[in-house]
Write a structure and sequence with these properties.
Layout lengths: L4 E5 L6 H15 L5 E5 L5 H8 L4 E5 L16 H6 L4 E4 L2 H6 L4 H13 L3 E6 L3 H5 L3 H16 L1 H4 L3 E4 L13 H18 L1 H6 L1 E5 L4 H8 L6 E4 L6 H11 L1
Parallel strand pairs: 1-2, 1-8, 2-3, 3-4, 4-5, 5-6, 6-7, 7-8
Helix pairs in contact: 1-2, 1-12, 5-7, 7-9, 11-12
The structure holds 2-phosphoglycolic acid.
Amino acid sequence: MRRKLVAGNWKMHGSLATNAGLLQGVRDGVAGLAAEVAVCVPYPYLAQARAALDGSNVAWGAQDVSEHAQGAYTGEVSGAMLADFGCRYAIVGHSERRSYYGDTDAVVAAKFEAAQKAGIVPILCVGETLAEREANVTAEVVTRQLDAVLSRCGIAALARSVVAYEPVWAIGTGRTASPEQAQEVHAAIRARVARDDAGVAAALRILYGGSMKPANAAELMAQADIDGGLIGGAALVAADFVAICAAAA
Ligand code: PGA
């Protein structure tokens, strides 16, 4: 039985003042819930998240990580730095990174590896654009994104990660994949992993992301291969995020 994971992706939102209430609200709201909960905050707020969440059942993490261990890479943040701040997770390959910042499949695989080398669990995002869905190449796209990581890092590495299926057309749009649409892709991802190792596939947590909210969370997470959510907009409102976590638990 896979334990559900609900991870918030705050993206570039928040301030010291607004985060304080949000972190406290999440910490208090999910205390005692059976689901695992995490928040991925902007880098400058990692220390604040650690201070607010330490000793609670909410983990924290980052939204990206450098593919390099250290060196002359102005503006980058390494896995070791994230580990220094107690991060459990780092998102890699979010579609916003892929489309706005040029993160290719190869770069995403390198980031995945760099996170794990630092002891951080990567949350690997995969997902198709609307044009790709309409062209009927969804399975090919997510398989290609997954294969880049599998060929660089291997199946044993995937066992120490989380995958998030995020259809690009559903992110921040209010347009959610139907539970059946999401389940179909989640099952395809698990089947691809099972080709390499059935045990890893059975244990792998595959989150859904893309306009998940309290109103649709339970139905999505009731699908056989949906093991939680990666939550953007709804993670910025403590009551909404807590309600999604409760639906997972
Ligand atoms: P959303 O974002 O919940 O606002 O659609 C999800 C994500 O991008 O991780």
